[in-house]
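$ ./design --mode recover --in tokens.txt
reading tokens...
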């Protein structure tokens, strides 16, 4: 909840209390330098012992509720026919309105199964924007991701409330250009991750549905961040101010033919699921489940995780849960903006994103400014963020670099984990970095994998800039920080 102080300033106030905590450490800058060098300047490769605030992702790092822990204890464990699965099915029906549901081990498993069943090589899948694992799975079956975003989506300093919208005219043009037989399905991603957690509006979503109906296309909703998208519709879209987040989520679900999500975000549990009201489609996907995921009543999750997901689904549409990160991000982004740091606006539903091309205009995109800024932030603060730029794009078939539309350093806000004082600390260190940005140079790859290289790739700092940055930091803050 946002509460106004007597000064008039608003701060995000947590509507929960910590009942279990985990100790964290801040190692000094010289040790952080050693750690990031060993990690090949890739924050995915850091070890947790070297991290102060882990803001790599909001995936699988959220604090669970007391009810979820209770679900862990009361779960009915069995390989097949667990009653916990039927409780899960009932929660999905109640909250999302889908009759048929199957679990998968996490979001990307859904992204594997859906195109496997619905698409073939050469098919085109239009979407408001790609996500890394979505694109990888579509390209692995030799189909094509076609991103149809609105022009404003790439403007990082915008006030457009729905930068995750799909451009309906561009979709119509694409159907004309490629022919409707080539289009396997249309995908909308809630709170578009790689654009900076930016939502689409209900109006736009309904318009895309209409185009799908005109051509007989299936509409697939990636609902990994569905509650944040619904929250933004509630706060930003005319006509929705008197609805509840729960009602908006249900309405969003009623529009899609197939819904899937990564449970690691909104439900705060490792896992995921695919849901639909279309029995035929469901029966087409279901037979693949035992081969790739597990038996139908657990689908690659443990029963205990499903037991924790049941309250997770019911709680995720509570506005205090759906909005808890949004309000922190709003505070974080606005505070950074006050200090002239180039952040993505409007604030999104997943993280605070820094525009690295604006922060480091002297680093060419071929030298990965977002990767460099992410590593620099770690050296200067112990905060682990994530590169969301060209490193997160794989090379094309001929080995050419594919430059990303945006170069973002993503500082994710796991749900119910960090507080305003943590954010204030980061704001201070980002400002220090901004003053010393000339010390930050580019990176070059020394090891790449053929797919999703950002996970396991290793890089080197050009001109050994990491050491120079750590030295400057030590000079100012002393050896203990
Ligand atoms: N779709 C979206 C929109 C996502 O954000 C993610 C994961 C996935 C699908 C894949 O789900 O990880 O459970 O297999 N996003 C995480 C992130 C990894 O850090 O943003 P998964």
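writing sequence...
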């Amino acid at each position: 909840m946002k509460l106004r102080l007597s000064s008039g300033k608003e701060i995000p106030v947590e509507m929960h209390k910590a009942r279990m905590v985990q100790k964290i450490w801040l190692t000094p800058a010289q040790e952080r330098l050693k750690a990031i060098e060993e990690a090949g300047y890739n924050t995915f490769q850091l070890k947790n012992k070297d991290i102060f605030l882990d803001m790599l992702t909001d995936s699988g790092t959220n604090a669970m509720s007391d009810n979820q822990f209770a679900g862990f204890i009361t779960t009915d464990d069995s390989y097949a026919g667990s009653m916990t699965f039927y409780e899960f099915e009932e929660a999905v029906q109640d909250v999302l309105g889908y009759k048929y549901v199957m679990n998968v081990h996490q979001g990307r498993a859904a992204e594997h199964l859906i195109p496997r069943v619905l698409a073939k090589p050469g098919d085109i899948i239009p979407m408001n924007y790609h996500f890394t694992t979505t694109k990888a799975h579509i390209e692995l079956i030799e189909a094509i991701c076609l991103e149809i975003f609105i022009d404003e989506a790439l403007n990082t300093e915008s006030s457009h409330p729905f930068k995750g919208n799909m451009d309906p005219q561009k979709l119509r043009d694409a159907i004309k250009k490629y022919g409707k037989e080539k289009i396997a399905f249309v995908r909308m991603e809630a709170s578009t991750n790689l654009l900076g957690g930016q939502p689409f509006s209900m109006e736009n979503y309904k318009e895309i549905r209409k185009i799908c109906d005109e051509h007989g296309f299936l509409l697939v909703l990636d609902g990994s961040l569905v509650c944040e998208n619904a929250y933004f519709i509630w706060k930003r879209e005319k006509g929705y101010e008197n609805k509840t987040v729960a009602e908006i989520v249900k309405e969003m679900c009623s529009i899609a033919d197939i819904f899937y999500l990564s449970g690691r975000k909104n439900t705060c549990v490792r896992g995921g699921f695919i849901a639909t009201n279309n029995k035929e489609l469901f029966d087409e996907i279901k037979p693949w489940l035992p081969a790739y995921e597990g038996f139908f009543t657990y689908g690659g999750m443990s029963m205990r995780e499903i037991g924790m997901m049941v309250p997770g689904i019911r709680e995720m549409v509570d506005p205090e849960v759906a909005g808890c990160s949004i309000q922190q991000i709003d505070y974080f982004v606005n505070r950074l903006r006050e200090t002239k740091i180039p952040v993505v606006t409007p604030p999104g539903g997943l993280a605070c994103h820094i525009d690295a091309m604006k922060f480091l205009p002297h680093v060419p995109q071929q030298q990965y400014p977002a990767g460099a800024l992410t590593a620099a932030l770690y050296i200067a603060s112990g905060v682990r963020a994530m590169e969301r730029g060209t490193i997160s794009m794989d090379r094309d078939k001929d080995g050419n670099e594919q430059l990303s539309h945006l170069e973002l350093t993503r500082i994710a806000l796991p749900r119910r984990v960090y507080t305003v004082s943590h954010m204030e600390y980061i704001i201070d260190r980002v400002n220090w970095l901004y003053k010393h940005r000339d010390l930050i140079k580019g990176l070059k790859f020394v090891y790449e994998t053929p797919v999703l290289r950002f996970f396991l790739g290793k890089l080197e700092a050009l001109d050994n800039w990491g050491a120079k940055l750590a030295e400057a930091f030590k000079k100012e803050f002393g050896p203990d920080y």
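exit 0
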